[in-house]
Specification:
This protein is about 55% helix and about 5% strand. By secondary structure, it is an alpha+beta fold. It folds into 2 domains: about 70 residues, DNA Methylphosphotriester Repair Domain (3-Layer(aba) Sandwich), CATH 3.40.10; about 110 residues, Homeodomain-like (Arc Repressor Mutant, subunit A). The relative contact order is 0.07. Bound molecules: zinc ion (ZN). The site of zinc ion (ZN) has 6 residues, from loops.
Length: about 200
């Protein structure tokens, strides 16, 4: 197997030799002969320079079929679980109107559905689906109290196009039907200040 010539500059090579953590996250290095990739700070044996391949990120290394080193866990460093889940939660916060499935999110965020499910639950304390439904119901509550759209329209806007499922879920979470909730809000609103048009 012919190895293509790759220039590794001195700074990078020095970082590898000295296991310099200052370079963690800046590049990763893979070793052709073992098929394993590491972060610069890895305490593993210094590889033969001619077998080393520099990669910008762990994702690239994984795409190239390198396996993450068990010792320095370069895949974890790039994205700790907390950060991964936070990214996903933030994404849900802005995409809850779309039809979301665990599979779709797992694919988008490069994990297995099972791993995503478990990790999300562990970190957030709720499942992805509960989290998403909670956002949808909160949004529905906002909409119900702030405008005159029909419950069906609001269900749609909140990302639950099935109106009867929406009503059931809404009741489950709030103890009120969407209409009751709206009435209650508008009564209270009138008592507190001038009705808005
Ligand atoms: Zn390593």
């Amino acid at each position: 197997m012919a190895l293509e010539k790759r220039e590794i500059n001195d700074e990078i090579w020095q970082a590898i030799i000295e296991n310099d953590p200052a370079f963690d996250g800046i590049f990763y290095y893979a070793v052709e002969t073992t098929g394993i990739f590491c972060r610069p700070s890895c305490k593993s044996r210094v590889p033969n320079k001619k077998n080393v391949r520099i990669l910008k990120n762990a994702q690239d290394a994984l795409l190239e079929q390198y396996r993450p080193c068990k010792r320095c866990r370069p895949d974890n460093l790039q994205l700790p679980d907390e950060e991964w889940i936070e990214q996903i939660a933030t994404w849900i916060d802005t995409h809850y109107r779309e039809s979301l499935t665990l599979e779709k999110m797992a694919e988008l965020f490069h994990g297995s559905p099972y791993h995503l499910h478990r990790t999300f639950k562990r970190i957030k304390g709720v499942t992805v689906s509960d989290y998403t439904q909670q956002i949808r119901i909160s949004e529905a509550m906002n909409l119900l109290s702030s405008n005159a759209k029909t419950v069906r329209e609001i269900a749609n806007l909140a990302g639950i196009p099935n109106a009867s499922y929406f009503a059931t879920l809404f009741h489950q979470k709030t103890g009120l039907t969407p209409t009751e909730y709206r009435q209650r809000k508008s009564t209270r609103g009138r008592n507190q200040h001038e009705p808005t048009s």
